[in-house]
C-alpha cells in the first residue's frame, strides 16, 4: 500500500508531470485525496473500536449476569442481613440492568433485584405508617397526616418496583398460569419463579395501599393462584400453598369448594417451621389481618416467635427466613403502636401489652421476724 505522501513525491519528481500537476490542479486533488483517505482510515479505526467495545461490553454483561445468578444470589440468600441486601439491590440494579442494552435482557436477575428494591420502599412505607399511628396516639393530627402522605408515596414506589419484577417474570417464563408450567433448569430457577409470584401480589397490595395506580392488573391474585401450582409445595416450605390460601381468603368467590383457607395456612405454617423458612407465617398473618381477626394475628406472631427459639433458619435460605421475621415484627409493631404508642419492646416479640402477667407467689415474712 503506497502512502499518499510517497505517491505525491513520485509524481512531482518527474519534470513533465510536475508541470502538469501544478497547472492542471492535480496537486489540489491529491491533497483532497489524502484528506479523504485519512478520514476513511480514521473512521475504520473508530468503527473497529466501537465493534470491539460492543463485544467487550456484551461479554462483560454475560459474565455479570451468570455470576450474579450462580453466586451472588445464592450467597445473599444464605445471609440474614436484610439491610445489606436492600442496599445492594438499590445500588446495583441500574448497573446490572444496563447490560440489557448490549446483550440479552437480564430478566431473571431483574426479578430478584426489583423484588428486593421494592421491599426497600415498602419498608420505608411501614416506617411512615408507624410514625402516623404514633402521632395519632398522641393526638397530633398534622404529623399523622404528613406521615400518611409519605407512606403513600413510599408504597407507590414499592408498587412500581414490584410491578417491574412481575413484568420481568412474564418476559422470562411467559405469562404465569396461562398454560403449561415452565421447564425449570434447577432449584434457583424455581425459587426465582416463586419470588416473581410474590412480587405480583406485593405489587397489587402496594398499589392499593398507595391509593394510586401504576398499572398492576387486578387479576394478579388469580394468576398467582394458578401459577403457584407449578411449584412443589413440600420443597418450598409450604409457601406455594400459603400463597394460594391467602388469595382464597382475600378474594370473594375465590375459595374452591371443599377448601378451608386457614386450615391450609396452618398446615403450611408447620411445613415452614420444620424447614426453618417461616414465610408462610407472613401469609397467615396477612390473611388474618384482612379478616380483622386480631386474636389470630397475635397467635401467628407468638407462633413465629416460639418457632425462632426452637429452630434456626435453613442455612441456604436464611435471607428468606429473616425477611419473614422482619415482616412479622412489622405486624407486631403496628399492633403495639396502635395500642401503646410505641413498638414491640426489644426482645419481646410474641408478647403483647395486654398479656396477663403471671402472679408471683410471695411469702409472708412477718411471722419470722
Plain-language structure description:
The protein is mainly alpha-helical and 369 residues long. It folds into two domains: 174 residues; 92 residues, no CATH class. It contains 13 helices and no strands. The longest helix is centred in the first third of the chain and has 52 residues. The radius of gyration is 32 Å and the shape is globular.
Low-confidence stretches: 10-24, 359-363
Element-level helix/strand string: HHHHHHHHHHHHH
What's the oligomerization state? single chain
How many structurally independent domains? Answer: 2
DSSP helix fraction: over 70%
- Beta-strand proportion: under 5%
The computed structural class is: mainly alpha
Main beta sheet: none
What is the first-to-last residue Cα distance? Answer: 120 Å
Q: Rounded to an integer, what's the Rg over CA atoms?
A: 32 Å
**Number of helical stretches of at least 4 residues:** 13
Bulk shape = globular
Number of strands: 0
Q: Roughly what is the average pLDDT, rounded to an integer?
A: 86
Amino acid at each position: 500500500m503506497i502512502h499518499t505522501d510517497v505517491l505525491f513525491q513520485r509524481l512531482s519528481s518527474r519534470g513533465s508531470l510536475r508541470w502538469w500537476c501544478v497547472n492542471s490542479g492535480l496537486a489540489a486533488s491529491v491533497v483532497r485525496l489524502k484528506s479523504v483517505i485519512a478520514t476513511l482510515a480514521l473512521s475504520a479505526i473508530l468503527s473497529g473500536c466501537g465493534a470491539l467495545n460492543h463485544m467487550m461490553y456484551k461479554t462483560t454483561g454475560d459474565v455479570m449476569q451468570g455470576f450474579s445468578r450462580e453466586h451472588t444470589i445464592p450467597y445473599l440468600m444464605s445471609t440474614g442481613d436484610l439491610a445489606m441486601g436492600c442496599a445492594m439491590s438499590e445500588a446495583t440494579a441500574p448497573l446490572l440492568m444496563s447490560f440489557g442494552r448490549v446483550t440479552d435482557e437480564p430478566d431473571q436477575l431483574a426479578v430478584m433485584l426489583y423484588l428486593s428494591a421494592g421491599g426497600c420502599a415498602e419498608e420505608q412505607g411501614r416506617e411512615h405508617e408507624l410514625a402516623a399511628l404514633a402521632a395519632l396516639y398522641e393526638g397530633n393530627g398534622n404529623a399523622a397526616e404528613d406521615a400518611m402522605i409519605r407512606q403513600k408515596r413510599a408504597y407507590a414506589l414499592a408498587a412500581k418496583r414490584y410491578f417491574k419484577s412481575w413484568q420481568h417474570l412474564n418476559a422470562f417464563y411467559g405469562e404465569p398460569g396461562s398454560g403449561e408450567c415452565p421447564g425449570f433448569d434447577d432449584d434457583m430457577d424455581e425459587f426465582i419463579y416463586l419470588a416473581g409470584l410474590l412480587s405480583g401480589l406485593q405489587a397489587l397490595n402496594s398499589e392499593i395501599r398507595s391509593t394510586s395506580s401504576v398499572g398492576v392488573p387486578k387479576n394478579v391474585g388469580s394468576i398467582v393462584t394458578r401459577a403457584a401450582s407449578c411449584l412443589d409445595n413440600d420443597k418450598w416450605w409450604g409457601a406455594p400453598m400459603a400463597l394460594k390460601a391467602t388469595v382464597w381468603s382475600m378474594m370473594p368467590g375465590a375459595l374452591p369448594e371443599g377448601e378451608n383457607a386457614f386450615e391450609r395456612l396452618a398446615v403450611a405454617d408447620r411445613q415452614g417451621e420444620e424447614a426453618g423458612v417461616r414465610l408462610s407465617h407472613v401469609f397467615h398473618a396477612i390473611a388474618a389481618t384482612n379478616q380483622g381477626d386480631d386474636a389470630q394475628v397475635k397467635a401467628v406472631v407468638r407462633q413465629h416467635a416460639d418457632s425462632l427459639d426452637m429452630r434456626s433458619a435453613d442455612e441456604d435460605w436464611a435471607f428468606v427466613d429473616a425477611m419473614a421475621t422482619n415482616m412479622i415484627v412489622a405486624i407486631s409493631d403496628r399492633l403495639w403502636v396502635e395500642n401503646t404508642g410505641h413498638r414491640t419492646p426489644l426482645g419481646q416479640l410474641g408478647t403483647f401489652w395486654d398479656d396477663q402477667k403471671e402472679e408471683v407467689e410471695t411469702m409472708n415474712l412477718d411471722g419470722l421476724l
